[in-house]
Amino acid sequence: MLERLKANFPLLHDRWDDYISCFKRMQVAPKTILLKEGDISHKAYLIEKGCLRVSFDKNGTDVTFQFFFENSTVSSIESFTKGLPSEFSIETVEACTLWWIDKTDIERILNEVITIPAMRKQILNTMFERTINYMHHFLSFIRDTPEQRYLNLLEQKPYVVQRVPQHYIASYLGISSVHLSRIKARIARKAS
């Protein structure tokens, strides 16, 4: 897993062993809360195997707004960087193998590599990619019907539908599980 990370940052070969030693591997059961909404984030996670979801509490209703799978990094960026309470929780959906790194180690590494132009570009691209994903999800709630959001999910990210329980998918789409069942039935009728 960390070899793939190393391949993405080839300029760091002379420092890589030091950086790798900062990551700790852990096995986590499904439905494990890695970060609770309101807590301050001190860790970032790299997913070797499994699925995580990011959610928040909306007046007693659990709302899922993002899923992360293998080879993704996950943290509450605002909480992690600014020391603010996290606006969301991070929870495992499946049994996961994760690599975590502490905030102090990340800060040290970033301070060392940020002066390398190619590294700075790679870090910024990663951050912009996450922002673009949030923007697309947000715009789909304005532009698309729930059925269209589900069809887009089937087309663009079929692995989500295959691996994530229906009630989390419904929450992610902004609908109830019953509404999602009706959408799926309507799509099945159209296909037959």
How does this structure look, described?
This protein has helices at 2-8, 16-20, 77-82, 103-113, 117-143, 146-156, 158-163, 166-173, 177-191; strands at 24-28, 33-35, 43-49, 52-58, 61-68, 73-74, 89-92, 96-102. The chain is of the alpha+beta class and 192 residues long. Strands 1-8-3-6 form a four-stranded antiparallel beta sheet. The protein has a four-stranded antiparallel beta sheet with strand order 2-7-4-5. The N and C termini lie far apart (42 Å). The longest helix has 27 residues, at 117-143. The chain is elongated. It folds into two domains: 2-143, Jelly Rolls (Sandwich), CATH 2.60.120.10; 144-192.
Specify Rg, calculated over alpha carbons.
Answer: 18 Å
Helix/strand/pairing category: alpha+beta
Return the average pLDDT rounded to an integer. 88
Write the CATH architecture name of the largest domain: Sandwich
Taken in chain order, the helices and strands follow as HHEEEEEEHEEHHHHHH
CATH class of the largest domain: Mainly Beta
Q: Helix segment count?
A: 9
How are strands sequenced across the largest beta sheet?
A: 1-8-3-6
- The CATH superfamily of the largest domain is Jelly Rolls
Instruction: State the CATH topology of the largest domain.
Output: Jelly Rolls
Which residues form runs of ≥5 with pLDDT under 50?
Answer: none
Q: Beta fraction of the residues?
A: 15-25%
Counted beta strands: 8
Q: Kindly report how far apart the N and C termini lie.
A: 42 Å
Helix content: 40-55%
The shape, in one word, is elongated
Strand count, sense and barrel status of the largest sheet are: 4 strands, antiparallel
Number of domains: 2
Organism: Larkinella terrae
Domain Cyclic nucleotide-binding: 34-110
InterPro entries: cNMP-bd_dom (IPR000595), cNMP-bd_dom_sf (IPR018490), RmlC-like_jellyroll (IPR014710)
Protein name: Cyclic nucleotide-binding domain-containing protein
